[in-house]
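User: tokens in, sequence out, please.
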């Protein structure tokens, strides 16, 4: 049985709407990618191409809309909605071009959570293993493009060794760096404002002023694993604030708000409210690595989902009305 109300419909109008929107954004991305590769002569997956291709301004916000639609396409993908598969593949091409691994894996996890929650995919050992294997493949393919295809390295035993250590760093580096950092009395300067960085920077963009830097300036050496500047979800909050009491209150309030949103999503027929909740779950799932609410996307994607829901629902109750999905 679905965890949420069953709102599937094989012949829906909203699928066509979001399919068309997604195709438009994907087409823009493919044209930009082709132009960047032709003009710059950079190889797909290289850091140089990523910098050249990465969207800014209006295009960046359109890509956030595409991220919001992506789990919906994963949910709808079946024999009745074959075009969803094409959108998924082309969207992932643009994700790999940007070469930010977390923002390839997190949308995939959000889509998988959505399918499980809606009862379209049954939870089992296979479903648990598939995202883990897919995450590892994304990691491998990303570095294959970044290092081998771009000509920075050859496919050799040294490259596989480097990849192994980097993968281990991705899995446990945040915990190790936070542990060492905490034992040495926290090396970061006080950066409490940075925990609200996206919101503060929006305010400063509107009113003027210097933006807040949300990137941890301290790279802690971890031997063979290299240097690491991430401190896990809770570790980042503590290292940025230097205050255990503040960290406990911050985590408690944030946990309460996210759980309340999750409860609200259980009682809605809006699939985009549920998608926003699935993204929140995905951000939390990657808390072993970093605190993802340092990025604007962690706010913008759920807000886009809320706006879509409010625009497409009953005028009486936009959060509880039936959606044609």
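Assistant: Sequence out:
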């Amino acid at each position: 049985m679905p965890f949420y109300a069953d709102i599937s419909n094989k012949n829906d109008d909203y699928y066509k709407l979001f399919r068309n929107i997604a195709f438009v954004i994907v087409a823009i991305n493919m044209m930009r990618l082709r132009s960047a590769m032709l003009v710059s002569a950079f190889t797909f997956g290289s850091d140089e191409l990523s910098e050249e291709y990465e969207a800014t301004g209006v295009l960046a916000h359109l890509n956030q809309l595409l991220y919001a639609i992506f789990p919906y396409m994963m949910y709808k993908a079946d024999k009745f909605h074959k075009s969803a598969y094409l959108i998924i593949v082309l969207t992932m091409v643009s994700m790999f071009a940007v070469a930010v691994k977390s923002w390839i894996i997190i949308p995939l996890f959000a889509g998988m959570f959505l399918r499980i929650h809606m009862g379209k995919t049954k939870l089992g050992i296979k479903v648990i293993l598939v995202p883990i294997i897919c995450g590892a493949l994304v990691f491998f393919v990303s570095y294959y493009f970044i290092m081998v295809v771009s000509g920075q390295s050859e496919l050799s035993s040294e490259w596989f060794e480097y990849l192994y250590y980097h993968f281990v760093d991705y899995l446990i580096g945040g915990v190790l760096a936070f542990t060492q950092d905490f034992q040495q009395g926290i090396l970061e300067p006080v950066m409490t404002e940075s925990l609200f960085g996206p919101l503060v920077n929006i305010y400063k963009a509107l009113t003027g002023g210097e933006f807040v830097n949300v990137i941890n300036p301290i790279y802690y050496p971890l031997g063979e694993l290299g240097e690491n500047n991430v401190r896990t979800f809770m570790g980042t909050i503590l290292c940025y604030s230097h205050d255990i009491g503040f960290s406990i209150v911050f985590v408690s309030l944030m946990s309460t708000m996210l759980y309340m949103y999750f409860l609200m999503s259980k009682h809605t027929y809006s699939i985009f409210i549920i998608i926003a909740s699935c993204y929140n779950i995905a951000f939390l799932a990657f808390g072993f690595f970093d605190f993802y609410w340092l990025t604007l996307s962690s706010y913008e994607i759920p807000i886009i989902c809320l706006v879509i829901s409010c625009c497409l629902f009953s005028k009486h109750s936009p959060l509880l009305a039936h959606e044609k999905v």
